[in-house]
Amino acid sequence: MRKTKIVATIGPASDSEVIMGQILREGADALRFNFSHGTHQQHLIAYHRARSLIADTGKAVTLIQDLQGPKIRVGKLRDDMVTLEEGQEVTITSRRIIGDESRIPVSYEYLERDVRPGEIILMDDGRLRLEATAVVEEGVKCHVVEGGPLSPHKGVNFPHSSLSSPSVTPKDREDLRFGLQVGFDAVALSFVSSRSDVAALRAEMRKHGAIKPIIAKLERAACLDNLDEIMGEADAVMVARGDLGIEVDIKRLPVLQKIIISKANSHGLPVITATQMLESMTKGMLPTRAEAADVANAVFDGADALMLSGETSVGLFPTAAVRMMHEIVTEAESFAAGVKDPDLWRRRDYQGRDIPNAICHTAVVAAHDLKLENIVVVTMTGQTALDVSKFRPTSAIHAFSPDRTRSNFLALSRAVIPHHCDLPGDFEELMNFIDAQLIEKGIAQIDEVVAVSLGLPLQQHKGTNTLIIHRVGHKHRLKE
Question: pLDDT band at 1, cuts 50/70/90?
Fold first, then answer.
């Protein structure tokens, strides 16, 4: 079983019934719908197509709505291209003008208020580098440190500025309203800088009466000082290496990736590693050696999921990209399983945690000591499955939950196999039901031992407080 999950982005190359079906069969555990592109109608058609295909597979798949966020871009330019020369002076302005070599419009209304002299402005994925020298009425005067050609709509980054733009834009609010009505399982929030950004999105959800898990995309330098508080608010995080790799010195990016993943593991949050993982497969059938190593290293770092972006949304070989990622991840996990003492629960002190954490930790220890292939969790909210997953057991984690959204969301978490179902309220009936499911789905055989974590009394939602070492097919009763 592959434990690390695969997220595939849906786009023009993959939104057909044939290709989307192939991507799911090749092992995609989540599908990302990028609302930076496409119309609501296009997303709606793709969404319903995905739901139909997923139903045919019989497995849980997370459908993610990815909001565009406050992306800042270059405005209109004369002749659709200007060239900035190193050493020249240029003015960046929030005014809606037609730009030229001396004045560049950008889509950020708070530009003149937020940018200060001495701060760096990056354009076109960091290819152009400007330093602010003065703020005047008509804009921000800058010195061109690294020049080059510049086209309209290229991205603009302010790695050293404290930006006051709202994290949820008017477009995001409209897209969110649509997404909540449609029924996406999770919402990804772009350009998260602080805990308040995540809280603002959740408050917006409450206005519509539907709360979905939030994935905080970590792609601004400002987020690095607030990782713990962001992880305390979000339901998952994404190492969005595209913009993050622009806003920080590129040599820091590999280390930051490891830091973010490690912190997410400690918080028990699913963490997705994203951007250019198999970029060469956008146009070719094979990745580079460096890309294959990058995917494997993300597995070794402890990522729950790895994401394909352009490879599956606009690439020539979307199905092959998913297949290749599956094969690289499987190989990496096979190697990691043979490394001495790989278990996360051995390397950290978990004393002082609450009862549910202690039970989940003990389930992983018991599974290790008894060499169990399967851990079963009964969970109302999905939290118990996340708490077991964060200890990184070698066993598969089968999560039985009556909440469809939460059950689908668990498909992002390492080693978790969600099972959405109505759960019996009687303990003996529940254990019989679990046995029947394990046997019917070929997960376990009669007499096989599994660890079962759950909360008793049943259906009182008091948290996980019980661990049962259970032999499949044998009656298990509670003593009065």
Answer: confident
73 assigned to active site: yes
Domain range 344-471, its CATH number among 3.40.1380.20, 3.90.740.10, 3.40.50.1000, 1.10.490.10: 3.40.1380.20
Query: Which residue among the candidates 217, 323, 392, 406 is catalytic per the annotation?
Result: 217
- φ and ψ at 209, to 5 degrees? 70, 25
Pick the catalytic residue from 275, 282, 384, 405.
275
Considering only CA atoms, which of 207, 208, 104, 111 is closest in space to residue 163?
111
Burial class (CB in 10 A: 0-12, 13-18, 19+), 347: exposed
Q: What CATH number is given for 78-157 in this structure?
A: 2.40.33.10
Strands (E), 224-318: 236-240, 271-274, 305-308
Catalytic residue, candidates 25, 73, 252, 263: 73
275 among known catalytic residues: yes
Chain segment 122-162, per-residue pLDDT in tens: 999 899 999 999 999 999 999 999 999 999 999 999 998 88
Q: Domain 5-69+167-337: what homologous superfamily?
A: Phosphoenolpyruvate-binding domains (3.20.20.60)
Domain borders along the chain are 5-69+167-337, 78-157, 344-471
Q: Does residue 342 have a cis bond before it (omega within 30 degrees)?
A: no
Q: Which of 32, 241, 323, 392 is catalytic?
A: 32
d(CA 329, CA 340): 19
Provide the 8-state DSSP code for 458: T
pLDDT digits (tens, 9 = 90+) for 350-371: 666 688 988 999 999 999 999 9
- Concatenated DSSP letters of 65-84: EE---S--BB--BGGG-EEE
Q: Which residues of 27-50 are buried (b: 16+ CB within 10 A; e: fewer)?
A: bbbbbbbbbeebebeebeebbebb
217 is catalytic: yes
